[in-house]
């Protein structure tokens, strides 16, 4: 039974009641499609419930040099810490359900109109548990996390790999402004804007490197489904966040790939 104690101190009481599997009204919830639900079941897992975490975070201020490429370390740390808080609270809800992991994780950032420099960071996914009782937790004892779809999760498991953790790297970077004289010299000419190229290149590399370090710390073998997203949020055109995210994976057995079942409409002629 889920109780309100120090172990789950970050989870609201209403959430604890929703996650109580021993209550008479408990049913699992999930954002999986029908086909995803069937494939997760065929992969040997059962969904336990939709889990989520939230953090409303005040993003601080940092002065930048007008004509210099540089990382905005205060902002980078804020964006990373806020996402980690949301992720950890989602993992706490999964712990309350005695889950092995969370699949289909989505990370969202929403800026609050009622507070300057405020943003809500949300993590949400479906908690699952292995039907054979095998533990799939990380080396740090936490539920595994993954942004893979149900179909991709089935394929990964059947080919002998398992998800370890959703890993990420963030870099908020100030791209230098170009001086008036430099702009005048380029009028009517084709040429590379090297100061912009180098700034964007450096920022992406920092985000990617931090994501890889997270995977290495968890002894993963690789990262699949990597996406590299760019957003200026509310900082203006010359300050950009580069956010790298993917699912770290590790081999655990030989491939067991077989044809999956298909869920067909009732009026399907087959």
Automatic annotation (TrEMBL):
InterPro entries: UPF0145_dom_sf, UPF0145_YbjQ-like. It comes from the Bacteria. SUPFAM superfamilies: YbjQ-like. Gene3D superfamilies: Hypothetical protein apc22750. Chain B. Belongs to the UPF0145 family. This is Heavy metal-binding domain-containing protein. It comes from Sulfobacillus harzensis.
């Amino acid at each position: 039974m889920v109780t309100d104690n120090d172990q789950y101190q970050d989870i609201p009481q209403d959430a604890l009641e929703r996650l109580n599997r021993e209550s008479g009204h408990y049913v699992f919830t999930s954002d999986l499609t029908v086909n995803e639900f069937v494939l997760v079941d065929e992969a040997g897992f059962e969904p336990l419930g939709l889990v989520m975490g939230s953090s409303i975070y005040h993003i601080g201020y940092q002065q930048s040099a007008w004509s210099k490429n540089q990382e905005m370390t205060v902002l980078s740390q804020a964006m990373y810490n806020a996402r980690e808080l949301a992720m950890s609270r989602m993992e706490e809800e999964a712990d309350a359900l005695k889950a092995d992991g969370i699949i289909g994780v989505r990370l969202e950032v929403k800026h609050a109109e009622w507070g300057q420099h405020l943003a809500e960071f949300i993590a949400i996914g479906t908690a699952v548990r292995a039907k054979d009782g095998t533990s799939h937790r990380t080396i740090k004892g936490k539920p595994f996390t993954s942004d893979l779809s149900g179909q991709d999760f089935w394929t990964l498991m059947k080919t002998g790999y398992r998800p370890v953790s959703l890993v990420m790297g963030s870099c908020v970077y100030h791209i230098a402004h170009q001086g008036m004289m430099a702009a005048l010299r380029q009028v009517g000419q084709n040429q590379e804007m090297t100061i912009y190229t180098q700034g964007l290149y450096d920022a992406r590399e920092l985000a990617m490197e931090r994501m890889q370090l997270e995977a290495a710390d968890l002894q993963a073998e690789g990262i699949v489904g990597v996406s590299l997203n760019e957003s200026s949020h509310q900082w203006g055109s010359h300050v950009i966040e580069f956010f790298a995210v993917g699912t770290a994976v590790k081999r655990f057995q030989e491939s067991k790939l077989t044809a999956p079942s298909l869920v067909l409409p009732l009026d399907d002629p087959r």
